[in-house]
Amino acid sequence: MFVLIAGGGQTPAQLATLLVAQKHQVHLIENRPDLLSLLHGELPTEVIYEGNATDPAVLERAGIQRANILAACLRVDAENLALCFLARTRYGVPRTIARIINPRNAWLYDQKFHVDVALNQAGILSSLIEEEMSLGDMMTLLKIRRGRYSLVEEKIPTGAPAEGVAIKDVALPPNSVIAAIIRGGQMVIPRGTIRFEAGDEVLAIVDPAAAKELAILFGRPQE
User: Fold this and answer.
1) What are 187-190's contacts with CB under 8 Å, separation 24+?
2) Which pLDDT score, from 0 to 100, does residue 56 have?
3) Residue 85's closest CA among 134, 93, 189, 26?
4) 177 forms bridges with which residues in the sheet?
């Protein structure tokens, strides 16, 4: 996979380092001399392209025509939006990812500017805090399908509604699947006759609504 990264700050540089380690082809564009000197100490020379990432000549020199993904990580929202628009409309880049600089401009990052994925750090933190508060002791381990589904873990306490009940008899919410049960350090295959026990660590794949219902089933008894 060929990834073109616009911007050379700490986050783009770390992204480039990780992708290079995973054997992807990566080109990174940066024009600030102080950052360029640091980048040359962290990345192979052939990865780094000097110039303005919104300049078509620089983009073409960096190989945007062949890019599978563009990651727009510039310092100004307008530049990130313009870059995504240019990448799709002029060069046909299949996927664009952009970092939102000012959260108040998040509403602009949509298909009008051909932004496929927008990273809003303030929004991500807010949603994570809200989710963790609403799910009690349930822990989100992994987001799947752009956050539509999650892999979650819940340790069943004594007195939980599901304690002692067989999987086939538990009213599991729609869009939820029990993936595994960890009991005494060993994995138990979640067959229908298996009964949940206090201390079980249950792994499940859920959507947001199902996560809240499972948090009640597998959570502490209601007072």
Assistant:
1) none
2) 95
3) 93
4) 205
**What digits encode the pLDDT tens for the residues 15-73?**
999 999 999 999 999 999 988 988 988 899 999 999 999 999 999 999 999 999 999 99
**Rounded to whole angstroms, how far apart are CA atoms 53 and 31?**
8
Q: What is the pLDDT of residues 152-183, one digit of tens each?
A: 888 899 999 999 999 999 989 888 999 999 99
The three-class DSSP label of residue 215 is: helix
Q: How many whole angstroms separate alpha carbon 19 and alpha carbon 3? A: 8
Backbone angles phi, psi at 219, to 5 degrees: -95, -175
Determine the straight-line distance between the first and last CA of the chain, rounded to whole angstroms: 53
Separation of CA 43 from chain center: 24
User: What sections of the chain are H helices per DSSP?
Assistant: 10-21, 33-42, 56-61, 77-89, 121-134, 208-217
pTM above 0.70, yes or no: no
Which residue from 69, 128, 74, 64 is spatially nearest to 94, judged by alpha carbons? 69
